[in-house]
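Limitations

Structures in this collection are predictions, not experimental determinations, and the ligand pose is part of the prediction. Treat each record accordingly. The example that follows, with zinc ion as the small molecule, is included so readers can see exactly what is and is not provided: the inputs are given verbatim, and the output is the predicted complex.
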Amino acid sequence: MTDRGLAVGTGGFHIDPRGPVQRAVITHAHADHTCKGSRHYLAAREGSHILRTRLGNDASIQFLEYGESVEIDGCRLSLHPAGHILGSAQVRIEYRGHVTVFSGDYKIQPDPTCTPFELLRCNRFITESTFGLPIYRWDDPARVLEDIRAWWRSNQDAGRASVMFAYVLGKAQRILMGLDPSTGPVFTHGTVEEMNRRYRMSGVGLPNSLPVEKAAKKSDFARAFILAPPSARGTSWMSQLGECSTALASGWMRIRAAQRRRGVDRGFVLSDHADWPGLMDTIQATGAEEVCVAHGYVDPVVGMLREKGIDARPLEASLRKD
Ligand SMILES: [Zn+2]
Ligand SMILES: [Zn+2]
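Predicted complex:
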């Protein structure tokens, strides 16, 4: 671990670095994992179209198929599906027969908008822990999506639009994929539509959607489902939609207080991360004799793993000064 993030081998490359480096391996295109300005990038081909929105068309990026390997600094490196969003990858690094896997963000639950998580056996597993508290347990996503469809229909009956706030990259597409297009029209905020476009370019068969701006003049949104980023809540952009019911889809909605704080009418618990049992099961299934925990509720996860007799520590504990 260095100030710039996780360095591998002699320091020739970093995984999801926090600043510009010589060679960056990017696990996925979410902003907190994708820092601009590095000389070269390595990422999974599945996410190529969405990664370009973050890094630009001029960035030097080498794309790998899942499972394809390259040699860097004497290490054999390959990327494997993490099931988090389109193109998300775990990084597998093999050095003299010793295998380290860096999970990146991952989820185990099914998601038709990306390749499912692949369980990798390894000696050392570096895991995220975004939802690493026992209270975070997800329901079956099929049921959550059913609830979302029912919420849309009941809003239609009441004559108001259904505005769903969701992360622009990943969550919005997962929800769109779960809608029944025969219910009514689906509209989007421009930022969501741009990602939808790139998902379609990547071969994901999303149902049709249209940016609100392109709707016919004096459109009636009362029957519509509208996907928007959480940042659109309370802005003037909302006023054109008429009377509406609002909702937010996120793992954080597990906590009622979080739902109140976000000021929405409904919260749907739908996450692109592993929940507590998912983290525990996955970590044990890797067979890793050493586990490093990062990116979230590090201490509760480390504590629980140690109780299970697993050699676990926070990734930050191995910080090395550059
Ligand atoms: Zn992410
Ligand atoms: Zn993340």
